[in-house]
Please model this.
Amino acid sequence: MGLFDQMVGGVLGKVGGTGALGGLLNSALGGSLGDALPGMVNSALAKTEFGSLAGLVTYLQENGLADQVASWLSSGENLQVTAQQLISVIGQEHLAHVATAVGLPPETVGDLLSQHLPGLIDKLSPNGQIELPTA
Model:
């Protein structure tokens, strides 16, 4: 069972689907779960080749998405990234590892990352570097 399953599985089971997860993430980024979500994502990514959220961001920067990542880390408007761009850069195998780490079906992770990663990174980088909340 993945980290997200453990943390929010009951809620998602009741409201169903990745659309519900997307809604939950949108709410979480602005709500009380907002402080916990970055740590949850970082912990899940620790189980992957990326090692952390910062590791994923560095990988994206070094493999073709430098402009997008720079916009997320800056105070300006965030450039969007598509699921296809993420799949192309990260690769299906690595994306499957991320999916396993967060307890989601692999086919949903690209869409979820494309929708929520820019805002999450933006929120965590008020000074241009990722700053995870301390517990």
The two ends are 23 Å apart (CA to CA). Confidence is low (pLDDT under 50) at residues 1-18. Helices lie at 3-15, 17-30, 37-45, 53-62, 66-73, 83-90, 92-102, 106-124. Residues 3-124 form a domain with the Arc Repressor Mutant, subunit A fold (CATH 1.10.10).
